[in-house]
Design goal:
Blueprint (H helix, E strand, L loop, with lengths): L35 H13 L45 H15 L13 H15 L13 E2 L2 E2 L28 E3 L2 E3 L16 H10 L37 H10 L4 H12 L28 H27 L4 H13 L9 H4 L1 H10 L21 H16 L6 H5 L14 E2 L9 E2 L7 H19 L4 H21 L10 E4 L5 E4 L5 E3 L3 H9 L18
Antiparallel strand pairs: 1-2, 3-4, 5-6, 7-8, 8-9
Helix pairs in contact: 2-3, 2-10, 5-13, 6-7, 6-11, 7-11, 7-14, 11-13, 11-14, 13-14
Amino acid sequence: MPLETNADPLELGPIAGLGHFHKTLQHDAATGFVDPAAYLTFHNIAVNGGDFDKVPQSPGAAKLINPQAGWAHEHLGPNPADMRMPPPPAVHSLGNAAEMTELFWMALLRDKSFDTFIAGDPDVEAALTDLRIAYGHALAEFHLGADLPASAGKYSLTLQNLFRANLPDEDKGPLVSQFFLNDIAYGTQIILQQQFPYAAGKDYLTNWTDWLKAQNSGNGADDADYPGDNDYGRNKAYFECDAYTPAGLRRIRNMRDLARFVNKDALHQAYFNAALLLSNWNAPLAPGNPYNTATGAIKHQRPFGTLGGPHLLAQVSEVAARALRVVWLQKWGVYRRLRPEVYGGLMEAQANRGVKCGLPNLAFQTEACKRVVAGHGNHLLPIAFTAGSPAHPAYGAGHATVAGACVTILKAWFDEKALFSDIVKNAIHPITRQPVNLWAPNASGLDPMNTYTGTDLTLQGELNKLAANVAMGRSMGGVHWRTDNTRSLRLGEKIATIILRREAGDYQEKPTWSYTNFDGNAVTITADGTVTVAGDKLLEDLYNSFPLIAPDSISMGVAAGSI
């Protein structure tokens, strides 16, 4: 059956596909507009879940990324067709223009070390002023407290929530989560939380020729598509170091570094690492876990296959795949939102190529836009990746959906109210055997980092910050909008909660799960699968509408004749 869509009314109007995804189809060289006939064929296939091998791509174009995933069926998580996201801001809206302003600033400040994001810095102050104005014109299109930061019911952008996702306690301390700054014992192996950084100042798709090639083929100027972009073997100039040697490694220190991580991560990697760290540090379990040493009823047993380490690592990984199936249907079957690089092309076409795209004046009047035009001579968004965005639509965001799902599992497993300083006070670094400290990035990104001396970091806040770092890191690279991230985080949270509810009857130990959701409301899942959400009856009813999976009848004896 065709899916109900929330498409822009101009999707098949005077300019085919305006505001929608059509990367790898043929585009007009002068305007950048997609070929109307090709788009109509693609549109019909996407709406009906047809044969995506029949999408009329340009010759030699990159492969579309997994468009059939959204039509998969689920037995543990929700079926993709049972979930919906609210529509994103439309391409002609002031909201989309405001989101583009933020992306321009992320590109402009991509190499600025986070330790220089301080009051009085002229570039940071300019970004704050510009974004307050831009988003202030478009507040009706966003959800305060969810999409945008709010204080006393009003939009409130500050130094502490700039380029963050407005999640509970996320605004405390450094922008980068502690889960990105500490090395990890993985059994007998060590995971160093360092990477080979991209070279400063190297941005892509900043001229019409490269931009157009990426839209037609999905490839960068070096003919590499998204999975193979920024490849060291193709061009060493993509990287800050001229050889992959240990001396070239560093920790995350700026937005380009976060973009680097989320360009090549294993998607659930950050949360798997966080689960390892929390286990290594003996972080306190949630109060509803029967193995909690302070509150639990089980005193003489240790968790393992259920409610123990193997279970945790499997569950934080499992929800990632199920989350992807849900968001992929939103991407391909419902919204097919354009990527930010395409909006930059529309701005350039409207400003300098004599085409009326209907974009609002706000998009062109911001300080960020003026600086980008002054730097590159056009309105194209500087992208951190050679091929630009991947060959799938923007909304919702896969990284953010997975982040929301995985972090929800971690918040349900561990005592999210614990202070981070208490969690690490007895922890030892797996290599140096020195005490673990709280860290903040510095200008070099090398050890030793700046020591963070505050006492305000909670486990909830650092897990929320980790999810925000990954989600907003995609925007820092130039490939996702703010609302892709903020709304997909909540989609992932819903998916994980439904899975926790449906598994509730599986355990002999009868755990109760609880966590604070991204809107600041307490969520509890009892052993019989009943979900309560403080202050949000609609969300509570949604969760309880999903049927439970009845556990098999288990005999505690051994069947006759068994071996």
